[in-house]
């Protein structure tokens, strides 16, 4: 286990290093000049590009280090990262790590509530679909799953706002004003991911139940429901766990659409503002932060595999 963990940790470091290089280069190939964008959006928002002089732009580029050769810019940024510093925003001139820390709690709350909604819908519907495969209950759960997966988040969000906030006046429409404010955004975000998770769980359960040892147990008279809950559910959760870890990372990355529809304060809106203002350090720092989060989640899932299914073994002799 220790050797396997060390291998995965080394691979994670290599992946993160590759991500830093790719993100850095891609941002430099985007058309437009960040110094001009900063001047237009910060110092004189009402000005046009014609009102800016080349001296102003070059002076700001020098101050921001954008005039340095790309290898120098990359090495400087990498040096900051190794010191635990994600950089400073071009627009606000504030440390990026501090700005992320202010917004992450809102996204964590939204992500956690959405995961609760997801599991509350996906697990019962997936189990029912597998237990009654080919029967009316299965058809109903599959239709509901396809419907939930097909509905765009922005459409479902607006629909919920109209129904529960405007027509019924039960819940707040936008903002973060109290515990009840999380209900509509969580339902909007959780419903879509629950649909895919439900279908994945149903397919995984059916595949597990079709294994010879499961068929033998059922032939000996073990009830299908008991067989499913006590013997099939645990190994069937492996692909669901993988999917859930990626979903959780994506949620923490900021459900941009949902946060925008409900004016929910989180990192998604922060990222949209950074992209609009060509704030390179924020985009780089945020992307690296999320990449690290995804790598950690995947690493945790790899370790948990051994405890979910005894058949999953990692051998030191060249097997991973």
TrEMBL record:
<feature type="transmembrane region" description="Helical">
    <location>
        <begin position="108"/>
        <end position="133"/>
    </location>
</feature>
<dbReference type="GO" id="GO:0015099">
    <property type="term" value="F:nickel cation transmembrane transporter activity"/>
</dbReference>
<feature type="transmembrane region" description="Helical">
    <location>
        <begin position="282"/>
        <end position="305"/>
    </location>
</feature>
<dbReference type="Pfam" id="PF00528">
    <property type="entry name" value="BPD_transp_1"/>
</dbReference>
<dbReference type="InterPro" id="IPR045621">
    <property type="entry name" value="BPD_transp_1_N"/>
</dbReference>
<dbReference type="Pfam" id="PF19300">
    <property type="entry name" value="BPD_transp_1_N"/>
</dbReference>
<protein>
    <submittedName>
        <fullName>Nickel transport system permease protein NikB</fullName>
    </submittedName>
</protein>
<dbReference type="GO" id="GO:0005886">
    <property type="term" value="C:plasma membrane"/>
</dbReference>
<feature type="transmembrane region" description="Helical">
    <location>
        <begin position="9"/>
        <end position="30"/>
    </location>
</feature>
<dbReference type="InterPro" id="IPR000515">
    <property type="entry name" value="MetI-like"/>
</dbReference>
<keyword id="KW-1133">Transmembrane helix</keyword>
<feature type="transmembrane region" description="Helical">
    <location>
        <begin position="182"/>
        <end position="201"/>
    </location>
</feature>
<feature type="transmembrane region" description="Helical">
    <location>
        <begin position="154"/>
        <end position="170"/>
    </location>
</feature>
<keyword id="KW-0533">Nickel</keyword>
<keyword id="KW-0813">Transport</keyword>
<feature type="transmembrane region" description="Helical">
    <location>
        <begin position="236"/>
        <end position="262"/>
    </location>
</feature>
<keyword id="KW-1003">Cell membrane</keyword>
<dbReference type="InterPro" id="IPR050045">
    <property type="entry name" value="Opp2B"/>
</dbReference>
<keyword id="KW-0921">Nickel transport</keyword>
<keyword id="KW-0472">Membrane</keyword>
<feature type="domain" description="ABC transmembrane type-1">
    <location>
        <begin position="104"/>
        <end position="305"/>
    </location>
</feature>
<comment type="similarity">
    <text>Belongs to the binding-protein-dependent transport system permease family. OppBC subfamily.</text>
</comment>
<keyword id="KW-0406">Ion transport</keyword>
<keyword id="KW-0812">Transmembrane</keyword>
<dbReference type="InterPro" id="IPR035906">
    <property type="entry name" value="MetI-like_sf"/>
</dbReference>
